[in-house]
Amino acid sequence: MIIEKRTYTFHPGTVQEFLDLYEREGLPVHTRYLPLAGYFVSEIGTLNQVITMWRYDSMADRDEKRAALYSDPAWIAFAPKTTHMIQKMETEILRPTPWSPIS
């Protein structure tokens, strides 16, 4: 099992606009393909961030699910609506330790 952690840093003042749009249009498509483990906003430290965590069985599972998402016309239509809000995107792949509660 792996967790994909994605951190999006938004232009100031656009996080709530993004969250409203994402909940309405992006989330239903995303969760049709990807297994959501968590969705967060920053409160302390670096602000204007949205952090997402997606759970996969393996890198191959991730690749397969993301390929299906990226070929969905609804996702292709949604994604460009948010790119102007994002300053920076980062992705990390995390492997849980044997004693992790989400292993």
| Share in β-strands | 25-35%
Low-confidence parts: none
Radius of gyration: 14 Å
Structural class: alpha+beta
- The count of helical stretches stands at 3
In whole angstroms, the N-to-C terminal distance is 7 Å
What is the mean pLDDT? Answer: 96
Question: What is the H/E string?
Answer: EHEEHHE
DSSP, total strands: 4
CATH top level label:
Alpha Beta
How would you briefly describe this protein structure?
This protein has 103 residues and is of the alpha+beta class. It has helices at 15-33, 59-70, 73-78, and strands at residues 2-10, 36-41, 49-56, 86-94.
Question: Can you describe what's shown?
Answer:
This protein is an alpha+beta fold. The protein has one domain: Alpha-Beta Plaits, CATH 3.30.70.100. The protein has three helices and four strands. The protein has a four-stranded antiparallel β-sheet. Strand 2 and strand 3 (49-56) form a beta hairpin. Helix 1 (15-33) packs across helix 2 (59-70). The longest helix is centred in the first third of the chain and has 19 residues, at 15-33. The protein starts with a strand and ends in a 9-residue tail after the last strand. The model has no long low-confidence stretch (mean pLDDT 96).
Provide the descriptors you would attach to this structure in a database record:
alpha+beta; Alpha-Beta Plaits; four-stranded antiparallel sheet; 103 residues
Describe how the helices and strands are arranged:
Blueprint: E1 2-10, H1 15-33, E2 36-41, E3 49-56, H2 59-70, H3 73-78, E4 86-94
Antiparallel strand pairs: 1-3, 1-4, 2-3
